[in-house]
Amino acid sequence: MSEYHFSEDYYDYYRATYRITINTDAHTLTLYKNDVVFKTYTVAVGKASTPTPKGTFKIINKAVNPGGPFGARWMGLNAPNGDYGIHGTNNPGSIGKDISNGCIRMYNANVIEVFNLVPIGTVVKII
């Protein structure tokens, strides 16, 4: 009796794909699963003097408990001219405001949820 081995293509076909859109005016991060809105979260974004960069980027690194003001998780973006990312916060009162140095801040429980779903390489569109 021979064994059948599924190819990686088979698994990729059935694996969910995620993408993220961040609307800086609305202070929202929308997570899409297979191109359908999966969940929307309230976020903090950059203040006028240090705005969140606009464009289409990718998550290039991830860290658990990065320390400092970054809360429970960090997801770094390949945005130019700075070290920008989506991260938690040790200042939950800042969520929903234009207050960061350009990063996207989330409540720690929310950033953990997103972190556990999206892989490195996930597309992040900031509008």
Write the layout of secondary structure elements.
Layout: H1 8-14, E1 18-23, E2 28-33, E3 36-42, E4 45-46, E5 55-64, E6 73-77, E7 85-87, E8 98-100, E9 104-105, H2 108-117, E10 123-126
Parallel strand pairs: 1-10, 4-8, 7-9
Antiparallel strand pairs: 1-2, 2-3, 5-6, 5-10, 6-7
Mean pLDDT value: 92
Q: Name the overall outline.
A: globular
CATH architecture: Beta Barrel
Major sheet details = 8 strands, mixed
Distance from N terminus to C terminus (CA atoms, Å) equals 55 Å
CATH superfamily: L,D-transpeptidase catalytic domain-like
Secondary-structure element pattern, one letter each:
HEEEEEEEEEHE
Q: Which stretches of 5+ consecutive residues score pLDDT under 50?
A: none
- Report the portion of residues in β strands: 35-45%
CATH topology: L,D-transpeptidase catalytic domain-like
Strand arrangement within the widest β-sheet reads: 3-2-1-10-5-6-7-9
Query: Class in CATH?
Result: Mainly Beta
How many helices? The count is: 2
Keywords: Cell shape, Cell wall biogenesis/degradation, Glycosyltransferase, Hydrolase, Peptidoglycan synthesis, Transferase
Protein name: L,D-TPase catalytic domain-containing protein
GO molecular function, one term: glycosyltransferase activity
Pathway: Cell wall biogenesis; peptidoglycan biosynthesis
